[in-house]
Amino acid sequence: MSGEWPEAGGAHYEIVLKGHLDDRWAGRFGGLCLSRLPGGETLLAGWVADQSALHGILNLIRDLGLQLLLVRQVE
């Protein structure tokens, strides 16, 4: 994501995963920005169009066997 906010619908989310993901995974998460955090965690952050898109991202996390630590909608 470019960091721009669409005019209507959707919301900005932060999703924290256990472990550091390599940059090659960034494209798999619907354009969310991938950042490695101290303590061995990965932050996915950005605009998610709607609840269906959010569930798609969460399903991918589950299917890849990644450990989900936090999902937070950011105002």
Number of H/I helices: 1
Task: Kindly state the number of beta strands.
Answer: 4
State the secondary-structure class. alpha+beta
What top-tier CATH class fits best? Alpha Beta
Which value, in Å, is the CA radius of gyration?
12 Å
Shape: globular
Describe the main β-sheet briefly: 4 strands, antiparallel
State the end-to-end CA separation. Answer: 17 Å
- Nearest-integer average pLDDT: 89
Biggest sheet, strands in spatial order?
2-3-1-4
Strand content: 35-45%
CATH topology-level name: Alpha-Beta Plaits
Give the helices and strands as they follow along the chain.
EEEHE
How many domain units? 1
Poorly predicted residue ranges: 1-5
Give helix % range: 10-25%
Describe what is shown at a glance.
17% of the residues lie in helices and 37% in strands.
Describe it.
The chain is 17% helix and 37% strand. Strands 2-3-1-4 form a 4-stranded antiparallel sheet, covered by helices on one side. By secondary structure, the protein is an alpha+beta fold. It has a single domain (11-74), classed as 2-Layer Sandwich (Alpha-Beta Plaits), CATH 3.30.70. It starts with 10 loop residues before the first strand and ends with a strand. Strand 2 and strand 3 (41-48) form a beta hairpin.
Topology:
Elements lengths: L10 E8 L14 E5 L3 E8 L2 H13 L4 E7 L1
Antiparallel strand pairs: 1-3, 1-4, 2-3
Salient structural properties:
4 strands; 1 helix; single chain; 75 residues; 37% strand; alpha+beta; Alpha-Beta Plaits; globular
